[in-house]
Amino acid sequence: MPTTQQYLDEIREIVADSLEIEPDEMTETSSFVDDHDGDSLRAIEILARLEKRYGIEIPQAELPKMGNLRAVYDVVAERAGWNS
């Protein structure tokens, strides 16, 4: 089973690709909207890519919570059962 850091790195790659930035430009807590010019269309793209990558379903109601890398990890980990 991958470590939390390995999952974070993988999610960082997916999010950075969707936001069209370099992965190292993003910290765990930098805001996708305020710091990286993210918008709702990119948020939905990120959501879809995470669902496909991890074989999970994330309700769009979770999107407002998913404003930075750590928050995205927390939502994905909960849905994927990584914390159990």
From TrEMBL:
<keyword id="KW-0275">Fatty acid biosynthesis</keyword>
<comment type="pathway">
    <text>Lipid metabolism; fatty acid biosynthesis.</text>
</comment>
<feature type="modified residue" description="O-(pantetheine 4'-phosphoryl)serine">
    <location>
        <position position="40"/>
    </location>
</feature>
<keyword id="KW-0596">Phosphopantetheine</keyword>
<dbReference type="InterPro" id="IPR003231">
    <property type="entry name" value="ACP"/>
</dbReference>
<keyword id="KW-0963">Cytoplasm</keyword>
<keyword id="KW-0443">Lipid metabolism</keyword>
<feature type="domain" description="Carrier">
    <location>
        <begin position="2"/>
        <end position="80"/>
    </location>
</feature>
<dbReference type="InterPro" id="IPR036736">
    <property type="entry name" value="ACP-like_sf"/>
</dbReference>
<protein>
    <recommendedName>
        <fullName>Acyl carrier protein</fullName>
    </recommendedName>
</protein>
<keyword id="KW-0276">Fatty acid metabolism</keyword>
<keyword id="KW-0597">Phosphoprotein</keyword>
<dbReference type="Pfam" id="PF00550">
    <property type="entry name" value="PP-binding"/>
</dbReference>
<comment type="function">
    <text>Carrier of the growing fatty acid chain in fatty acid biosynthesis.</text>
</comment>
<comment type="similarity">
    <text>Belongs to the acyl carrier protein (ACP) family.</text>
</comment>
<keyword id="KW-0444">Lipid biosynthesis</keyword>
<dbReference type="InterPro" id="IPR009081">
    <property type="entry name" value="PP-bd_ACP"/>
</dbReference>
